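Dear colleagues,

As part of the handover before I leave the project, I'm documenting each prediction I ran so the next person doesn't have to rerun anything. This entry is a single chain, and its sequence is reproduced below.
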Amino acid sequence: MTARPFAALTEGESVSWRHTVEAAEVDAFVALSGDDNPLHLDDAFARQHGFKSRVVHGMLVASFLSRVLGTVLPGPGVLWLSQSMRFQQAVYVGETIEITVTISHKSESLRTLVLETIVKTESGAVGLTGEAKVMMLQTVQTVDWDEMVAVVTGAGRGIGAAIAGAFGARGARVVVNYRERADAAEEVVAAIAAAGGEGFAVKADVATREGATALADAALERFGRVDVLVNNATPSIDRMPFLELDWDDVDGYWRTYVQSAFTLTQAFVPGMTERGFGRIIHLLTTAIWGVPPTGTAGYVAGKSALWGLAKATAGELAPLGITVNAVSPSAVLTEQWDSTPESRRRALGMRIPAQRLASPDEVAATVLYLAGNEAAYVTGANFPVAGGEVM
């Protein structure tokens, strides 16, 4: 059973459950309650008093109502506060009943619900009517690593590949998104499989809405759910003086960072809400913390806008059991540095208190912390993986 977050319950929502009442259940209720009224035990006695056979205890019928409230709607975490009942029709042993519960009122401030409760007999006659008042306790949902499904954009190389591999090493199922390098993405999938996870490569340009939607559809079709979204994809980062920028240059960053995160978040949040668990993690940069490097206006504007989206959605999605966080690496030793002279890399590292550059695995470890159950109370945070470059 999975508890649904209170925020996901809506007025007018209704469920029905059918059950055939067996004689053994009535006998067990007699033993438990001590109510050995012959009306419930003796067919002849029941017929003598105008009933067609043994009558099921009214409170036994109500206990089936408890089952629906506690396991279906509202579900696990419900506290039954009160119940009004009116018995209108006898229920007989061997008869099938249908219990319907409908949310008629919801109080956000008190976390309470008022529910209309109806029990009908197999003939369609109303056997019991009433109204329940319940409170939903605050529960925290968890997902084990081997049950988790993670989507990592831009996962064919660099930081994204390290993140996807880290999920796979925990036994998770990972959707490895890539744009061009199918061979690199398949290497990541193979590494995930070797580590005990399950990988699935999806070619999609998430900088377009069509590409982001195709990625979401492929992930849900393959695994049926997504628990973690890691927005890591990036275009090529080219330094250019502001006055030489065209808006198309800037828009390339915005579409990759903001539009893709927006589209994918909207695609996955409904399922996360239904399960009461979700993790959305954005890869940012230390360049948005202090004075940005010159020539990075488009890049920094795009990442800053993504951080704004992260903060806004973190507050809105928190009641649903969904956290939204960010990770801001400084310079990370990936293949983009292969053409940079060793002396230049050492010089960059010496400017950082840790006296070195970050590794992709260190970034991935921070992402995994935010994706796990231990970070359930962390949302709206931006973690600098920067060796002290920003504080």
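The chain has a mean pLDDT of 93. Residues 246 and 298 are 9 Å apart (CA to CA).

All the best with the project,
I.
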